[in-house]
Structures are given as structure tokens and as C-alpha cells.
Amino acid sequence: MASRSPAPRMIELEALAPGSLELRRRAVPVELRRHPRARRISLRISKDGDGIVLVLPQRTPIREALDFAENNGSWVLSRLEAAPPRVPFAAGAVIPVLGVDHRIEHDPAARRGVWRGVRNGEAIIRVSGAPEFLPRRLGDFLKREARREIAERAREKAARVERRVGRISLRDTRSRWGSCSSNGDMNFSWRLILTPEVVLDYVVAHEVAHLVELNHSRRFWRLADSLSSDMATAKAWLNREGGQVHRYG
């Protein structure tokens, strides 16, 4: 739900201290942000489906924004209850890796760390070691896989436009899938490994295109399209499903 003002671009927002709001005895996480061009308060469900994001004009008191959320408490709770449940990194859970569902299996006696395989036609990820270390080990594995996939594609695409990629960093960002600085350094969300391959490929192509065009001009979009396997499909998936990857882990 939002006021009538246009939806703000999250990259321009100033984050405030996080908090929570009690709605019908349920503590709802609240992310407060200020936008320099906002004229009214806007409210939306966070990408992970667990809380809300409130965007405030520069001079609006925080209490006024919280009152706005409370007045729309029924809508907030209905949306939170309708959100898909979180999927922990735990034995038996199913997570996507480059668009393919993998069932997590715990093999405490093994000494191989974490590895992918297939059994009875089903893709699996097996994790060795003590059960309390499974979430961390699996998360580290997914980040390594993300780095490998992203780095290989970024360097291959950069060579096609006769540019060089700088440092590649992975983060758990929510407002951006990737970014590219003027010196060629790139940041990516490690959760791209949880998206279909065509999506990861497009995000890498998008940032590599910024090595040539540090803008979003028509020339930039033509270049990004030429570097991507299917830009239209990837952008549609991100708009429709992108927020769901924050449910995992």
C-alpha cells in the first residue's frame, strides 16, 4: 500500500535506525528511510516478506510515519500472512540453484564439506559435519558458487567490449542486484545464485555494460541486451519473483 506519490527509487534513500512496530500483538520489523523527493509517506512489504518499509519525506516526523503504518495495520498483517514462509538452510529444505531446485541433505560422517549431486533424478546438496554448522557451511558454499559464476561471466563479457573488470565483491543487498563503479569495481548480491541462470547472466551483463556506458542511456540498454542471453525474460523475472530469494537462509 502506498500514498499517491510515485514510488521512490531505493538507491536514493537515507536509511534510518531500524525498529519494530506492534500490530495486534505481533512485532513487525520496520525499515525507515527518507527520500529527498518524497512528498508523502509510502508503505510496502519488505522483500523478504517479514516486515514493512516506510519511506518518509525529509521533514516528516518518524512518529507520523509509524502512525500511518498503524492506521493501515489490517492491510499490513494480511499481506504478511499471505507471504510465502521462510526456507531455512536445514536438512530437508529445498532451495533453487541457478533455477534448479536442490534438496538439502545432511551427511555428518562425510569429509567433503558441501557438494552438489543427483540421486534418483533429484538434484541435491549434501552438507557434512556437525548439524549446528550446516547453515553456515551451506551459505559459504552458495557464496563461493555465486562468486565463481559471476566472475567468469563478468570477465568474459568485459573482454567482448574490450574492458577489464576491477574488484568483484559479494554482499547481501536488498535494493540492488549489482553495481559498478567508475574504476570497474563491481558489487553483486550473492543471492543471484538462487535465481535462474538467465537472471544472473543478465545482471552481470548489466554491470559490465556500465564499464562502457556509466548511465542508463539507449546505448547502454542496447549494449546490455547484446551481452545478455535474454534481458527481457530476466527483467520480467526480477520484477515478478526477485523478492522471493530473500526467503532463503
Question: What's the number of helices?
Answer: 6
Structural class of the secondary elements?
A: alpha/beta
Instruction: Indicate the low-confidence ranges by residue numbers.
Output: 1-14
Helix content: 25-40%
Order of helices and strands: EEEEEHHEEEEHEEEHHH
Radius of gyration: 20 Å
Strand content: 15-25%
Structural features, described:
This protein has 249 residues and is an alpha/beta fold. The chain has helices spanning 62-71, 73-82, 134-160, 197-209, 218-227, 231-241, and strands spanning 14-15, 19-23, 26-34, 42-45, 52-56, 94-97, 100-107, 114-119, 122-128, 168-171, 178-180, 186-189. The radius of gyration is 20 Å and the shape is flat.
Which helices and strands appear, and what pairs or packs with what?
Layout: E1 14-15, E2 19-23, E3 26-34, E4 42-45, E5 52-56, H1 62-71, H2 73-82, E6 94-97, E7 100-107, E8 114-119, E9 122-128, H3 134-160, E10 168-171, E11 178-180, E12 186-189, H4 197-209, H5 218-227, H6 231-241
Parallel strand pairs: 3-5, 7-9, 10-12
Antiparallel strand pairs: 1-3, 2-3, 4-5, 6-7, 8-9, 11-12
Helix pairs in contact: 3-4, 4-5, 4-6
